[in-house]
Amino acid sequence: MAQLLLKGDPIGNFQGVLFDKDGTLSRSEPHLLALADARINTAIGIAQDLAPALQSSELSDTLRRAFGVDNGLLDPGGTLAVASRQDNIASTATVFCLLGCSWPQALTMAHTCFDAVEQSGLIDTTPSPLIHGAGPLLRDLHQQGVTAAVISNDTRSGIEDFLAHHQLSAGVTGIWSADDHPRKPDPQAVLELCDRLDLPPQRCALIGDAETDLQMALEAGIGGVIGFTGGWKRAPELPSAQHLLHSWTDLALSTAA
């Protein structure tokens, strides 16, 4: 067990720390903006072939709002930043429906769009950069015997590739991904991850950049709920946070008595 210190002040003793990935450990905004552009452009091409009555400009504008893209910035609480791939497919299909497609046609078009982007090779698949200070903290937790885990709506392979790329795999004991059920933000996801780790939720802290993550943690009885605001150009609003953290260098730990 170790004591977490925020700017030198103790905020609790914990046996485990659960981390979100995108926008918390990973600086994901540039990658996600490129992904949004690729999906929007591909969706327009698919619509021109399969639903020519859809207006390209209206489709583009509506998809940008659905993904949470505005003037080159990503909404930290938007679908693309927070939700899983499957949820983003559903939101894309909903846009197609709003613009006149039937649900079966819309769902087919959304799946076709996402698959085409993934197969195109246009998106750099190199894992996103690690946010400054996150690596040393994870290594410090490992050295002091505090369990670290990642709970994210990325796929398991995406999380594993990210950790391996940044040489952090050895320090992360558990992963809960979009491939696990239930997914975030269901509080049961946190409880089942804690059970896998053999840790009581009240002895864990959770650090995330989304309000849904923090609400999930509170409902699951997590002992320390920390909102991270330093991962996006537009800082997220995190009213449920018990503590706010802007820079990983502000968080440290000392062995608890």
Q: What keywords describe this structure?
A:
alpha/beta; three-stranded antiparallel sheet; 11 strands; 9 helices; six-stranded parallel sheet; 257 residues; Rossmann fold; elongated; 2 domains
Summarize it.
By secondary structure, the chain is of the alpha/beta class. Helix content is 43%, strand content 18%. Strands 7-6-3-8-9-10 form a six-stranded parallel beta sheet, with helices on both faces. A three-stranded antiparallel beta sheet has the order 2-1-11, with helices on one face. Strands 4-5 form a two-stranded antiparallel ribbon.
Topology overview:
Blueprint: E1 2-6, E2 9-14, E3 16-19, H1 29-50, H2 56-67, E4 69-70, E5 73-74, H3 79-82, H4 85-98, H5 103-120, H6 134-143, E6 147-151, H7 156-165, E7 174-176, H8 187-197, E8 204-208, H9 211-220, E9 224-228, E10 243-245, E11 251-255
Parallel strand pairs: 3-6, 3-8, 6-7, 8-9, 9-10
Antiparallel strand pairs: 1-2, 1-11, 4-5
Helix pairs in contact: 1-2, 1-5, 2-4, 4-5, 8-9
How does this structure look, described?
This protein is α/β, with parallel strands linked by helices and 257 residues long. It has two domains: 2-28 and 130-255, HAD superfamily/HAD-like (Rossmann fold); 29-120, no CATH class. Helix content is 43%, strand content 18%. It has helices spanning 29-50, 56-67, 79-82, 85-98, 103-120, 134-143, 156-165, 187-197, 211-220; strands spanning 2-6, 9-14, 16-19, 69-70, 73-74, 147-151, 174-176, 204-208, 224-228, 243-245, 251-255. The strands form three sheets. It has a six-stranded parallel sheet with strand order 7-6-3-8-9-10, with helices on both faces. Strands 2-1-11 form a three-stranded antiparallel sheet, with helices on one face. A two-stranded antiparallel sheet has the order 4-5. Strand 8, helix 9 and strand 9 form a beta-alpha-beta unit. The N and C termini lie close together (8 Å).
